[in-house]
Amino acid sequence: MSVILTLNAGSSSIKFGVHETGDEPPLLTSGQVENLGPLARLTVAGAAAQEIGPADHTVALQAILSAVAPVLEGRKVAGVGHRIVHGGKTFGDPVELTAEVIDQLRALEPLAPLHQPHNLAAVDAARVAFPEALQLGCFDTAFHRGHPFVNDAFALPRRFYDQGVRRYGFHGLSYDYITSCLKRDWPELAKGRVVVAHLGNGASMCAIRDGHSVGSTMGFSALDGLPMGTRCGQLDPGVLLYLMGQGMGADEIERILYHDSGLKGLSEISHDMRTLLASDDPRAAEAVDYYVFRIRRELGAMAAVLGGLDGVVFCGGIGEHAAPIRARVIEGMEFLGLGLDAEANAANATRIGTGPVEVLVIPTDEERVIARAVSRALG
């Protein structure tokens, strides 16, 4: 029997799954290494978390391969599917990760420095561990390809757009999974106007009409739009000119925008929403206030892009588990047809709305989308 391994390397975690092949690949086991840094821990489904101490992405991958070895015993890994954050203007559909393709993807690392290098490190490790397996890249930008020009372009000289300076959007694998759930369980809603809020350490929102992306809060890089765990979100480009004028170089500015901003920068406490919600420090409250304000602002913008709303879906670690955030986002949004069932929301139920617009909580599964793509590629 052959199996599929999926690797989803993010900025602070690596999720993995082992699937059998098939049209809807059955999951054999899954887990993740989270809190990458000095106190990383490995969790495998059905087992207690294991502290693995200091770990970067390379160490984490070694721990994952050791953890799945018992499941793989006697089974051939026919394919390894990888989440690749940035496909640029060249890559959309899943593609075999040949040496030539990998070189092209490395050239995109400056556009996603928190993710692309780690995504490709996972590819390198998997090619060594499973040299005969198909290595398939699935792109977070793919779901947004085909945006209307006005949602793709920046008001810069046209030559930059032709060179690829445009809005790509991200979290596409998550949005792909959510739309597949809507088609299966909420077919009429799937044909309508839906805003999906993927809220986690990375965060974005997507306007979806009839299953297709027509607008996204993220743009050229994974910095734009909503504030995130350590990333700034939308920023006046004049701020960058000012920082440069103060003598800051590109490396220092990159560190601030990607690693020291967002919830972490505003609170000066933590990037973790759980920590901030539990804190009585006024800086934590202000960081959460800003986070909620930006989500509400973008929700209104996405509704305008769609010309109305038929549904809102929350997903991602915060979207799926932080009931207080969902409540504050929906509160006062009756003018958009949104209402909240407080009891259902507190229970993290699937259906938490009371107004004419559906409000849903759907756990996302990017690894499932990757496994499907690998299974199709294997035939």
Could you give a quick summary of the protein structure above?
This protein is α/β, with parallel strands linked by helices and 379 residues long. 40% of the residues lie in helices and 22% in strands.
Walk me through what this model shows:
This protein has two domains: 2-139, 2-Layer Sandwich (Nucleotidyltransferase, domain 5), CATH 3.30.420.40; 188-361, 2-Layer Sandwich (Nucleotidyltransferase, domain 5). It is globular and about 60 Å long. With 379 residues, it is an alpha/beta fold. It has helices spanning 57-72, 99-106, 116-129, 149-152, 158-162, 172-185, 187-190, 237-245, 250-259, 262-267, 273-278, 282-306, 316-321, 323-330, 342-346, 366-378; strands spanning 2-9, 14-20, 27-34, 37-44, 50-55, 76-84, 95-96, 134-139, 193-199, 203-209, 212-216, 311-315, 358-361.
Main attributes?
single chain; 379 residues; alpha/beta; Nucleotidyltransferase, domain 5; 5-stranded mixed sheet
Q: What is the CATH C level class of the largest domain, in words?
A: Alpha Beta
Please state the CA-atom Rg, rounded to the nearest Å: 20 Å
Widest sheet, order of strands = 5-4-3-2-1-6-8-7
Summing up helix and strand content along with how strands pair, one would put the structural category as: alpha/beta
Q: Which SSEs are present, and which pair or pack?
A:
Blueprint lengths: L1 E8 L4 E7 L6 E8 L2 E8 L5 E6 L1 H16 L3 E9 L10 E2 L2 H8 L9 H14 L4 E6 L9 H4 L5 H5 L9 H14 L1 H4 L2 E7 L3 E7 L2 E5 L20 H9 L4 H10 L2 H6 L5 H6 L3 H25 L4 E5 H6 L1 H8 L11 H5 L11 E4 L4 H13 L1
Parallel strand pairs: 1-6, 6-8, 9-12, 12-13
Antiparallel strand pairs: 1-2, 2-3, 3-4, 4-5, 7-8, 9-10, 10-11
Helix pairs in contact: 1-3, 6-16, 12-14
